[in-house]
Amino acid sequence: MKIWWTLVAANMRASMQYKWNFVLFTLLAAFVSVAEFLGLAVVLHAFGAIKGWSVWEIGYLYGLLMTCKYIYRGLASAVNNFEPYLVTGQLDQLLLRPLPVLLSLMTSRSRKVTGELLQSLAVLGVCIGVLLRDGQVSWWAVPQTMLAAATGTAIMFAVGLATAAWGFWLTRIDDLYVLTDNATTTACQYPLSLFPAWLQSILIFVIPFGFINYMPALYIVKGQWGAWILVLAAGVAAVSLTASLLLWRLGLTRYQSTGT
């Protein structure tokens, strides 16, 4: 962890060498994210509650999901863009380093997500504040949301790592990321109850993004089921992470380089 933090800090300092570029990029990224959420909020406001979910409850789903996404992207953006390492042979350089390959990969490229993360945290904070004001949730929702964010980030990382690991057999995996990351993230911005049963099953049992925000929110925000759902989400995160690490290790044994 000390080596990981040293390398991440070095990448952060490098990205901030051009200060105005860093500030402008952060502001523009936050603006784009705000515009995306405002478009969603306008539609929701026009319809009011959807399937029993208010604007603030759906905003909670959005804020929690995007917080997990940008923490994951900030910590391991190269995992989410692994295809170039396989196609161009960049992975060979990581194999030569006296570090675990996954650690080298996670620290080889850092994405600046400050603006997006601040925006998602702001949306999440405002929605929790409104729900607190209305008496719908208690202050226990804050630590419970922090727990959900931790387990959700682990689930998102596990799915991203599993997708990257499939690259050792498929090589070209950018389109697979569209399915396991982009499409599922877009779907989980809304309550899963909006979707047909077969899609709900995929988002809970196959690509378990439903455990990032929807399942915890059923207890934290809606007061349904019980606290055991948070424990279940943590269990799903642990199982997903273990399975993805095993798949990654197996994939590494199949890597044959590019011949360059």
* Helix amount: over 70%
| Strand composition percent | under 5%
Radius of gyration: 19 Å
Number of individual domains: 1
Largest sheet: none
Low-confidence stretches: none
Query: In DSSP terms, counting alpha (H) and pi (I) runs of 4 or more, how many helices?
Result: 12
Shape: globular
State the order of secondary-structure elements, H for helix, E for strand. HHHHHHHHHHHH
The mean pLDDT is 88
N- to C-terminal separation? 32 Å
Structural class, judged by helices and strands? Answer: mainly alpha
Number of strands: 0
Pfam family, one: ABC2_membrane_6
InterPro entries: ABC-2_transporter-like
Protein name: ABC transporter permease
Transmembrane segments: 21-47, 53-72, 113-132, 144-169, 227-248
Task: Pick out its properties.
260 residues, mainly alpha, 12 helices, 0% strand
Give a written overview of the molecule.
By secondary structure, the protein is an all-alpha fold. The chain has helices spanning 2-15, 19-47, 55-76, 83-87, 90-95, 101-108, 114-133, 141-170, 174-187, 197-206, 214-220, 228-254. Helix 8 (141-170) runs antiparallel to helix 9. It starts with a helix and ends in a 6-residue tail after the last helix. This is ABC transporter permease. The chain crosses the membrane at residues 21-47, 53-72, 113-132, 144-169, 227-248. It holds the Pfam family ABC2_membrane_6. Keywords: Membrane, Transmembrane, Transmembrane helix.
